[in-house]
Amino acid sequence: MSLTGILYGGYEKLLASEIRGKPIPSHVAIIMDGNRRFAKKHGLSQYYGHLKGADSTEKVLDWSFNIGIKQLTVYAFSTENFDRDDDEKSHIFDLIGIKFDKICSDERTHKHRMRVRVIGNIDMLPPNLQSSARRTQDITKNYDGVYLNVALAYGGRQELVDATRSMARKVKNGKLSLKDITEDAISKNLYPSGGSVPCVDLIIRTGGDERISNFLPWQANGNECAAYFCAPFWPEFRRIDLLRAIRTYQTREHERQKNTVMRIVRLLSYYGKVEVEDVYRISRRSINVPRKELVKIMHELTYSNPIMYNMIKW
Question: Could you give the CA distance from residue 270 to residue 284 in angstroms, rounded to a whole number?
Fold first, then answer.
């Protein structure tokens, strides 16, 4: 093994150890950007870039589910991508169809009990791809181990428009009243029709751009969603890039927990000395951390703050 390989392996193990024992994002969404630029970089056809990108997606599926991620949403084809030339679109659709067919027969699908759902306006896709997508969804519809959501013909604003139209039809038909239009009701009318995608914990974008590109606006906003932007093109995405993204999520989650605990301590301090058990009881409404971890956070907050330290009955 080369020196570079040894260093890479060592760094990967270090990252894996750093995230171990800490919260793992339940739902990760990925904007898989850079297939065409990867192909251009190597002087090859665009199809080659998409082919290598599809291979990366398979690897990331394995890495994600082995780490403990329960739900993965991948941005495979946006509504804006329909502006591309017909030859490229045809190759992309054929490739996605092949991957759907492979999922149906892949033993990993059934081992992980992976349910596949397509989010987007599936009617915009070619008939053969529609058929492959529906077959894959049907074969895996009773699985609930892990979830793969494939965003096809997807646009975040269009999703909200379609959800609004769906609710309007229900109101017109007497199946929904205006007073029942809540955040939960909107969520239930988003893609896919058989059950909405849950809130996103972490969005990853490859290829160097730092933007979300109309991806899951409802599911990502208002959920303290972390974002990780990285330079590698999607076909170059490595396990260390995924581990770095998860570390970013964990760092942000820890800061959120610290801020929540600090607010609770300050609130309770107005009534006298703060009991650790009271902090634990109140914090469970917004953050789910074991008591031992909560005490560690409180010690971290008071390490250089003697005034706050003296507020607490240890």
Answer: 20
Highest mean pLDDT among 14-18, 24-28, 282-286: 24-28
Structural domain contains residue 129: yes
Strand partners, 275: 313
Encoded amino acid at 92, one letter: I
CB-based contact 152:77 (threshold 8 Å)? yes
Residue 5 falls within a domain, yes or no?
no
Percentage with pLDDT > 90 across the chain:
78
Is residue 242 in a domain?
Answer: no
Nearest-angstrom CA–CA distance, 222 and 219? 8
Please check whether residue 39 is in contact with residue 48, taking contact to mean a CB–CB distance below 8 angstroms: yes
Q: Would you say the pTM of this structure is higher than 0.70?
A: yes
| CA dist., res. 235 & res. 225, Å (int) | 25
Question: Which residue of the set 35, 81, 214, 278 is catalytic?
Answer: 81
Residue 10 domain-assigned (yes or no): no
DSSP 194: T
Q: Would you call 142 a catalytic residue per the annotation?
A: no
How many domains are there within the chain?
A: 2
Sign of CA dihedral 198, 201, 205, 209: positive
> What single-letter DSSP state applies at residue 196?
P
CA atoms within 13 A on the CB side of 136: 27
Residue 221 is a catalytic residue: no
Run of H or E including 62: helix 46-67
Cα gap 12→212, rounded to integer Å: 27
284 has a pLDDT exceeding 90: no
* CA–CA separation, 227 and 95 (whole Å): 28
Residue 146, SS3 per DSSP: strand
Place of tokens 């081992």: 111
Residue 18 has pLDDT above 70, yes or no: yes
